[in-house]
């Protein structure tokens, strides 16, 4: 069963940008695309743990600020030829409000 | 209504590198436009023909050199009809006819039939044991012969002939190379380099007979020998003819397409029949035919662009470089090196070290280069050759190469061939030679970009680019596809930086989406390379009008601090000209303690760096620093960083002018400005130059009679002394020239291109003309800089610390306490 938590207004996240949600299991980065879709991923690059929330967002991808790994927001997968995967969490927007469902695996750090 | 769009049919004749590269490029641009059918007469997929020599030499296997396996065709819905030959093109009905009589219709046809080895019309040329050197089949026959027989004669002392000879020798045969002329590889080498090459091949056991003309091939059922013009004979069980290749255009010619030495094509790679395109070794473009890989890649790109109906790319010929694929011999040649009245030569010859270099100049530009023994700088010369760089300012050191001009990467390394696999090539990302070689061969990489993407080598600071290109050349055997002459801004577009800057002005484009729309960007929101570039170009072009797009800024510029590897930030307040006060120092000390900042360090730019600040603390840290009168030092910016000074006439017994005062003045005038890449200044009070001004982007050296202005230095990845720009008498004039210079750089530099690179590209004289000689222009430049400063000189820290700008950036969206 997914339990959804309200985390804030969509407008509090910049388009093509991201905000961080603090959790005991570590930060989760919530991204907003140009077309107002939202995605949530652990704020840790699979490469060397760079904060993905600080990267440049383009289409449905983000570039890690440390060494330019490009990560797919939907799957958390690094775009080839790089390899690695970041844990994702379900997120959705309803009436301008962003909801997040934290998947437990995140707590294992 | 149709439920399926009927696709156009593209038929490709030739399953070689040119044809398939075009198809690959086409699929990238327009994946669904065509139903594609490829005909190839060889029974293989597409393989890398330039690597046949290493296969012959036993250094690689056939599997190693396959580029596209049968699965690839299937995965991309391409019908591959291998082993089938096209015998006729029926242009009237738009069909091709196979030798079995099958007719296949096309809407567009691509001819990529490549070339055939030239077989000399000698008596005996049909005897078994006489072969060319062109495909896997030939290589197989040579390998077979090497196990059954002993004596081989290779006719042709060019690139291909020597590689064939080397391979056969490696396989244990006695090899004699017969060459018509007295210089080996005369199309690529001059007599000196040819002689050096001959000597080292002889040392390995190769025998030469040259100059010599072959008259007949002897034998009854199989070749037994060769007879020459002078009547002498040599025994031979195998004769390889490697005297050259001939474009294969029979089919095109029979179809009535206009051909001369090849199928004649236009700049859009079209033949005289607009539906029919041709690429690769079978074509003749602007009177030129090509037998190397790099040009064919260039052509493939252009052709794909038109097949995809984009219709803007043109091919305007390629400059090529060659490298001999004989392990242990370093040889590089590029461009045109025939002597001529208007050409000048720089020659370096060191017989003991076995090094020979010859650089040919014309109109201050490199037009050719021949390197033997030490080829590390080959790609570097080649780059300047293709870019048409004015090299007069580095002429006296040119022949010593990039390393001596401060542009080298790893010092003391001049031959990748001699390096062990463990040698580190990319110091930033710790990538060693073996890893790069492995990636190139396993992942079939061809370009520097490919290597960067797969290995991360040369993807950070870029100082090892030359070495990586060398490894690429070494692994692929030379002729790899180097970066194109006109570099696209990034992978999201085919347009260059210059194109983009020009179009922004011409079309009055004022937002990033507008630029992307107008210039038909290939990706939805661009990427981390192009967005910051576009943001800068718009900002520099439309000061006061363009709204800086924070989401297109690299994190450091977005949060006005430098991200560190653990995700914390570092903060550097401005210290004008490196001068500080007790109260500033006290404030810095207080901030460090209050926020538990772990490291406080003095920087090379005469300021203090606070390292390890948590992101959410940044606004409060800034607020405290602001209170003490300090502002952002822009230590994170592609903009004005520091102005380093020495104390000058105020205190120093040698000082000739007030260098500190001038430094402060410059910094106060120029801070806050955004530039293509970082800009660092230095002002020294006398020629002792304690502020090290002559390795800065702009440096002033005060002298008794005024101020010497230098620029285009670097002391980071590359070490390069500055160029002297001019000397002026007053401080005001000094400021005016420096500001005008910076503005010109802001208007013309490519994003991330440091000032010295920009100077290299456009030329010192050009710059001097516009900022020194033309006073009206200088004042206009100065005016534009001053105008844009109105909008740029707001302290970004104050905006965020007390005025709440970007508040969201620094606080988490939510804090969750999970059960
Ligand atoms: S940590 Fe993200 S790319 Fe290295």
Strand order of the largest sheet of chain B: 5-2-1-9-21
Mean pLDDT of chain B: 88
Q: Whole-number radius of gyration of chain A?
A: 13 Å
Order of helices and strands of chain A: EEEEEEEEEE
User: Span from first to last CA of chain B?
Assistant: 57 Å
**Counting H and I runs of at least 4 residues, what is the number of helices of chain B?**
26
Count of strand segments of chain A: 10
Q: Span between N and C termini of chain A?
A: 22 Å
Strand content of chain B: 15-25%
- Helical coverage of chain B, percent range: 25-40%
- Percent of residues in helices of chain A comes to under 10%
Q: Most extensive interface, residues per chain?
A: A-B, 41 and 34 residues
Measured on Cα atoms, how large is the radius of gyration of chain B?
31 Å
Helix-and-strand structural type of chain B: alpha/beta
The biggest sheet of chain B, with number of strands, parallel, antiparallel or mixed sense and barrel status, is: 5 strands, parallel
SSE inventory with pairings:
The complex is a heterodimer of chains A (109) and B (819).
Chain A: E1 5-9, E2 17-22, E3 28-32, E4 38-42, E5 56-58, E6 61-63, E7 70-72, E8 88-89, E9 91-94, E10 97-100
Antiparallel strand pairs in A: 1-10, 2-3, 3-4, 4-8, 5-6, 6-7, 9-10
Chain B: E1 8-13, H1 17-29, E2 34-40, E3 46-47, H2 52-56, E4 66-68, H3 70-75, E5 78-82, E6 86-90, E7 95-98, E8 103-105, E9 108-111, E10 115-117, E11 130-131, H4 136-148, E12 151-155, H5 159-170, E13 174-178, H6 191-203, E14 207-209, E15 214-219, E16 223-228, E17 233-235, E18 238-241, E19 245-247, H7 250-254, E20 263-265, E21 276-278, E22 283-285, H8 293-307, E23 321-323, E24 331-335, E25 344-350, E26 355-362, E27 365-372, H9 378-387, H10 395-398, E28 424-426, E29 431-432, H11 433-442, H12 448-455, H13 465-476, H14 497-506, H15 512-518, H16 530-541, H17 555-559, E30 562-563, E31 569-571, H18 582-594, E32 599-602, E33 608-613, H19 618-627, E34 640-645, H20 659-670, E35 679-684, E36 698-703, E37 706-711, E38 714-715, E39 719-720, E40 723-728, H21 731-748, H22 755-762, H23 764-773, H24 775-792, H25 796-801, H26 807-810, E41 814-815
Parallel strand pairs in B: 1-2, 1-9, 2-5, 9-21, 11-18, 12-13, 12-18, 13-14, 20-22, 34-35, 35-36
Antiparallel strand pairs in B: 3-4, 6-7, 7-8, 10-19, 15-16, 16-17, 23-24, 24-27, 25-26, 26-27, 28-29, 30-31, 31-33, 32-33, 36-37, 37-40, 38-39
Helix pairs in contact in B: 1-8, 11-13, 14-16, 21-23, 21-24, 23-24
Bound molecules: FE2/S2 (inorganic) cluster (FES).
